[in-house]
Amino acid sequence: MTAPTTTTARKGGRWIERWDPEDETFWRETGRRTATRNLVFSILSEHIGFSLWSLWSVMVLFMGPEYGVDPAGKFFLVAIPTLVGGVLRVPYTFAVARFGGRNWTVISAALLLVPAVAAAVVMEPGTSYTTFLVVAALTGVGGGNFASSMTNINSFYPLREKGWALGLNAGGGNIGVPVIQLVALLVIGTAGAAHPRIVLAVYIPLVVVAAVLAALFMDNLAPVRNDTGAAREAARDPHTWIMALLYVGTFGSFIGYSFAFGLVLQNQFDRTPLQAASLTFIGPLLGSLIRPVGGRLADTYGGARITLVNFAAMAAATLVVVYASAQRSLGIFLTGFIALFVLSGLGNGSTYKMIPGIFQAKAVARGLAGEEAAAYGRRLSGAAMGLIGAVGALGGLGINLAFREAFLTAHSGTPAFVSFLAYYALCSAVTWAVYLRGGRAAVPSDEAGTRAPGTPGTPGTHEPRAQRQPAYADV
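Structure (tokenized):
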């Protein structure tokens, strides 16, 4: 019997009391339509969040010599929002269950007004560097939006469609980075680099629109509850941290390169702000657009396979960038760097698809089946996503700090790219060893002898190894 989507008004918003996306009849008759509506407005809110999160990647293009901030200071300025955004992703993940997905989307969207208005106030020569750092840190709230949005949409979709849905949600959010860069290009090209407040005049009304539309058209899922036990279990699971390592390589690269691209062009190839702005948006745009494709490919061929190939390609593209840096060839450099953006976007989609698949495989290995296995997978993957997303965002901090150090010591980004190359090689090796070697991974520690607490079965019962060892090749 199909469970209806019963919507009631309680706790200050629209609440759906029953939700079972794994039931194909329910999904076909009512679930898909409701999930799609929530996905659309989730994308809009997350898009504005990403734009404000990356605000200072364009504000630094307006900061000429009269601002008194050197290149190293600018790299640090764009790194601060990634740090704050990464840290906020953990509480934002739990806020969905605490307040409801729709309610928290409204709150988190409205919070974007704080960094936007603050930037409009301080963006002028003579403002202290410390003030700029504080205001840049405020934009970290835009990075937190990603975690709550992804956790919310993960609950709406069945496992068989999570890769595509999460890819669309994240890709639509990611594209906020190149969009604000295009807005900045338009402002610099028409009004000039002395008018950064025009960018804020565009985005402040958009923040209000996103919050209002979320309030009018999104829903809260009553079955979604905060589960501190799930959070602790996800934090103890080695796969959470393995996937965090991989996500640093994909999303960390995307957001780090997005924030740093314009500064790298200005300092590596002596581009003017207008010249840098005219090129900066291309990579983030392509990387954002291809993220859903990464999710779809992962749905079809397995996330681990796509992720492995992707990291190998990212290493190859990095070699191209290193060569171009040594030769000071802007054309080859742009080719390699834009390829890195595209591949980071593709990898974002495939790695995020792996997360629910991994915990679903663990549920099956523990003897669970049907809705029981799906519920276990949703419970653990939702908790893990917040941690993985937070660590992945901190990868952007690492990239900007690496560029800062490289330009301080070598006056070139080449040393930073060499370190990124080593990291991609590590990610390739880890993906193969853990998720693809022989089609299986090593038995997680909590499955080595007994069942994990809270799972069916008699404590201390030993099952045949083949039943206890999850197969991850198709995650």
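The first helix runs from residue 24 to 53. The chain is about 75% helix and 0% strand.
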